[in-house]
Amino acid sequence: MKKVFYKISSACLALIVLLSTVSFTVDSHYCGDTLVDSSLFGHVETCGMEVQQQSPSSECDISKKDCCSDEQVIVEGQDTLKTSFDKLDKDQQLFVAAFIHTYINLFFESQEDLNSYRDYTPPPLVRDIQVLDQTFLI
């Protein structure tokens, strides 16, 4: 259960970092008040109702108001992530080293020798009690 929680939280944090650093642009084309097309990548398709610009040499200079409009929303990502560790001060380096050490130790079990009788010496044998009582296991 604990490992699953760590994996889910790690994935969520990585996704948050990814989404906070990505920048993108949303282009939208409106014809009047109606949204015709919206695009995340590339240019939007127009509705074909744009006013065609006439050459200035024509005698009739009547201009028509364009009912179409383009809107562009730019979402800037965070660009100030610190990627180099040589600019960290001593306290921050100590924190990063301690964090990495404890994080790595989460995935390895300690293999301690739990032999508590290692330093214990048995009492000296004065007489062999099994031979004296003649009790033998067969």
From TrEMBL:
Top-rank taxon, per record: Bacteria
Keywords from the named record: Signal
Signal peptide segment: 1-25
Keyword Transit peptide annotated: no
InterPro entries the record matches: DUF8199 (IPR058512), HYC_CC_PP (IPR058060)
Record's protein name: Secreted protein
